[in-house]
Amino acid sequence: MLYTCMSNALRLDERFIINNFNMDCDGETPSSSDAIEDKPEYEAFKSPVCLIVLGMAGSGKTTFVSKLNTYLRQFKRAPYLINLDPACKNMPYTPNIDIRDSVKYKQVMKNYGLGPNGAIVTALNLYTTKFHQLMDLLGKLNVENSHDIAVIDTPGQIEVFTWSASGQILTESLASTFPTVVVYVMDLERSTSPITFMSNMLYACSVLYKTKLPFIVVLNKSDIVDPTYAIEWMHDFEVFCDAVENESSYMSNLTRTMALTLDEFYNELKCIPVSSLTGHNFDEFIKMVDAAADEFQKEYRVEWNKLRKEKLQTEISQLNKKLDDLAVSSGEGELVPLFTSLSAGREISDIYLAPNADEMSGDSEGEEVPGFNVND
Predict the structure, then answer these.
(1) What's the rounded Cα separation, in Å, for the pair 166 and 160?
(2) Which of 6, 156, 183, 206 could covalently link to 57 via disulfide, CB atoms 3.0 to 4.6 Å apart?
(3) Any idea which of 90-99, 118-127, 210-219, 326-335 has the lowest mean pLDDT?
(4) Facing residues of 270 across strands?
(5) How far apart are CA 296 and CA 113, in angstroms?
(6) Using CA atoms, how far apart are residues 256 and 239, in angstroms rounded to an integer?
(7) Which percentage of the chain shows pLDDT scores above 70?
(8) What is the full DSSP assignment across 8-21?
(9) pLDDT at residue 257 above 50?
């Protein structure tokens, strides 16, 4: 009986949890008097818009963030800068939050006996344990309305962030609270080969479908290389195949096959050529960011909440099943209904209850003793 009460108390109520999940960003459930029936759900989520800047090593992510900071400050729209690269030595901008202030990269290598990449992953894992404090600071920006854009500069090794548990936690934490856009920086100078270009696009495609967030490809270094070739390769399959024909590498056939597969991916892909050195096309990039943030609020947020609710309901069902299995294994057994009447028509109160053997040892089994009343 005690275990039954405990298991019932521990059993999760899906309606209670889902209702708590639907609370607003301030942690308070909106009252019925404050609710507006015609107000779209996405209007409840405010700034800052979080830009997660990703890209291959050497693509110019940090330089891009620095130029973006300079550009926005010219229009009194200074971004909130966050550096998540613990191994960065020379920072061309002053971040508002710097992982290097919390985790010492070289000390992590020494303490745990790790190499460079392993130390970066471990530093991110350690920093993730305190990421709720960063979320609180971003929440204050929303209240104070001091910054409407937050830029997150990630480590140079893209796979360290995108395929690690800490990177997924950071991305999902931001997207669950603020409008979040992934900015993939691609190096035009190093992608003139169709095979290298395809490698970049495959990585961009994998990141897009992993994060399921608004995605912008920044074709960086357009001041060095004309970005026309990359745009043509994205929109014209035949032009890209002609470029592949000039390659004699064993990767040519695979690249040609991948190009046909990614043709649908290119149709929905937003890309913009920029120069992190001269600031070319940064005005168009900001317009694209604003459009992506609005798209997140209207479309991605709805889908994101739907996926989280489904995941939450699955976890609830699994936990309740474990509680049921634990109840059976502890010997609680199944509930058996108590009987209140007999088929022979006799009431329970008329049934003879045999006394203890030491009290009436002389009686024969099944023989009723005169004068014995069960109600006495």
Answers:
(1) 9
(2) 156
(3) 326-335
(4) 216
(5) 42
(6) 11
(7) 74
(8) HHHS--HHHHHHHH
(9) yes
Looking at residue 37, its pLDDT comes to 35
Pairing of β 97-98 and β 49-55: unpaired
Task: Identify the top-confidence range among 5-9, 42-46, 284-288.
Answer: 284-288
Determine if the peptide bond prior to 370 is cis (ω within 30°).
Answer: no
Per-residue pLDDT of 82-138, as tens digits, reads: 999 998 888 899 999 999 999 998 999 999 999 988 999 999 999 999 888 999 999
- Closest by Cα among 243, 244, 241, 240 to 231: 240
Q: What is the pLDDT of residues 283-316, one digit of tens each?
A: 999 999 999 998 888 887 777 777 778 888 888 8
Q: What span, in angstroms and rounded, lies between the C-alpha atoms of 262 and 170?
A: 28
pLDDT for the residue 332: 56
Q: Give the C-alpha separation, 117 to 111, whole Å.
A: 15
Question: Parallel, antiparallel, or unpaired for β 80-83 and 149-153?
Answer: parallel
- Cα dihedral sign, 278-279-284-285: positive
Q: Half-sphere exposure (CA, 13 Å, Cβ side) for 193?
A: 11
Does residue 202 contact residue 265 with C-beta atoms inside 8 Å? no
Please count the other Cβ atoms lying within 10 Å of the Cβ belonging to residue 109. 18
User: Residue 341 phi/psi, 5° resolution?
Assistant: -150, 165
Angle between helices 116-128 and 105-112 (to 10 degrees): 110
Backbone angles phi, psi at 288, to 5 degrees: -70, -35
**What are residue 187's DSSP bridge partners?**
220
Q: Which of 57, 51, 55 is nearest to 204 (CA)?
A: 55
